[in-house]
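User: ok so my PI wants both of these folded by tonight, can you help

Assistant: No problem, let's get them done. Here's the first:
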Amino acid sequence: MPKKKKQTSDLSSYLLKRLEEYKLTPPIKEHKIVKLDLDEPHQKYFLRCGTEVDGTTRALRYIPKDALIGWAYKLGKQGKDMNLEKTNAAKIGTIAHFLIQCDLMGWEPDLSSCDGMLVRSAQTAFKAYREWFSKAGLRPLAVEAQLVSHCYRCGGTIDLVGVDEHEELTLVDFKTSGGLWQDYFFQVSAYATIWEENYRRLPIQRLLLVRLDKETGEHETKGLTEWKRHWEVYVALLRLAKRIKDISG
């Protein structure tokens, strides 16, 4: 028999107190129709003083992406436009993330403005998510959480933070790429640090990358319970990005 998911009232008084302290309310499913606009501007992040800061992915551009080179070569051999394929892959990822958010929030997704072919690929990835989530044993505490680190001057959007039966927190990042690449682990270590800066008394115990295959509908997971070294690499990338930005003016 599958384990019954905890309702808010089933959470311990300790966890409820921590949630109340930070004014965090676990998502309550609410039926409404939400339309996805793929032309909506990218999320921006700001410090309390109003200064705009970079998202976590900016620093990752300095990581060599050997898999991307191989992918571009393969597309060239097939006579396909790499830029178009890259754009479509990003859109599929956006649609898949939107479908996941709607599922977790109880919304009805409106994809009427999206290309049908891209939607079908995203729905295949969403199928993989449903299979994974049905067995994950996590109750959502935060969905698409947009947070900023004032210490490190960067921001990020966390796909999911969930609590398990032991009330330990897992930070989940969904990917629709062809693999789980090394730079993803640097990115989620940044997400965990940003989360814990904002919610110090709600520490993350585990990081989980979940790859949702948009062709097969299968999923692949990789987890981390210790990410100090990954965070150290990310901090070095932040410093590098800042130096390059300062030099470039």
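One down. Here's the second:
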Amino acid sequence: MLSDYYFRFFNERVRPTFSSPTKQLNSQDTVTMISKKAKYAIKALKVLTEEYGKGPVLISYISAKENIPKKFLEAILLELRNHGILQSQKGKGGGYLLRVDPGRVNLAQVLRVIDGPIAPTPCVSFNFYVKCDDCTDEVTCMLKPIMERVRDANLGVYENTTLLTFQNPSSLETKEIPIGSKATELVDSLANRMTA
């Protein structure tokens, strides 16, 4: 069932937030993040991108270079191979290598293979849409437009970041997004509407 599939991925991707070192966390303090598995997959692909065109790379080399547990890495690389991102060669001189040019693989593809849906809530997902159980009317839902913006912002970064970025890290542009009184007013306004 699709909703069970989607639910599983969302529950696996929910992690505690670390917004304040002094704040005590409780069960409601959660935020969606990429999994450790996805982070390891991206780190492994970084190594394979650096070695692109030089032949197969040993799992032990990737594991040691990026400090990834070898058995966990084997499962990740196998999953990426099964989805056509990598290829493997057996025997002496074997290992893993990128199947396609690194410029043709973006982070959205990798995250969908490893973590499933990218959207923060099921009702705004392009590929794994499921109506939220607690939502009575999606048209008047105050949270949905915000989650759509979060989804679009994440996808904008993930879809426009290819593995080539790892060959030229200076191409990454970091932008700070100021949070001012308008954002605070919006959050307060939405909180008031939800409790009313």
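Residues 144-159 form the longest helix (16 residues). Helices lie at 2-13, 36-50, 59-66, 70-82, 107-115, 144-159, 181-195. Good luck tonight!
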